[in-house]
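cron nightly-structures :: item 1 of 1
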Amino acid sequence: MTFAAMMVIAVALDLAIGWPARLYAAIGHPVTWIGALIGALDRRLNREGCSFARRKWAGVAAVLICVGLVAGLSTVVQMQVSGWWGILIGGVIAWPLVAMRSMYEHVAAVANPLAHGDLPAARHAVSMIVGRETSTLDEAAIARAALESLAENTSDGIVAPLFWGVLFGLPGIAAYKAINTLDSMIGHRSPRFEAFGWAAARLDDLVNLPASRLTGVMFAVVSGRPKQAIATMLRDAPRHRSPNAGWPEAAMAAGLQVRLSGPRVYANHIADEPWVNGGAADPLAADLQRGLALYRRALVLGIAALLTLALL
């Protein structure tokens, strides 16, 4: 109950005010603090002259140091507080680690110009949330990229941190954000990070496994066609390039009756990915607005579940 109540407070603060720009300018953000630590570990431990195996073990050490430090500090804080006062403090500390409001704002920044036919503005906005090349995307490709980001980040930016926060409190949500940030920064298949980022990428896959399935079920339940969405998840998610992203993407695709994933262009290569819900049509601007509505309904379901846990 205590941990669920902490997460309710964190969600309420996030929905009410997000992470204000003035606060970010003054102190940054916990994820940027974690990112600074990861950057320092990368510079210190990831030496290009070392063997693949040595760099791989250096990456394991970086993960242990980063996650251990973040989890350890948050455990110390949690042990110092108790009762309703402790729940309040825990909720305030967890507040910046939930991204409901910012996720909506980032995707709405794509949806609004796209709805008015302003493709250059929509391309610029979607470039802020995806890693693929966006300069030549048409309406369907912009909508598809934004919907995929919305689906995947609902899982790893909202449901996963809350899931681990409900289970373990501040150490759970803080350690999860450390793992997720490690994966974002070093979990890439590039010459510099293929070895060093191996442990970060594998650990991120593991900790996102339960939340990705749960997010897919949430989307399915509120989609209006739950049987179709669940069937599409079970069929298409295992073929996705990611062991986790395919689950919420497939549920959202089936819920909106559009296709997602498929081929896309990155900076230096074309990724020929399989389609999710491939028999459906491409999404358009109106479908992106519908995707945001589906996201809102899923959040209502999730918040109701959190409140129920907090009150039991």
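cron nightly-structures :: done
The two ends are 7 Å apart (CA to CA).
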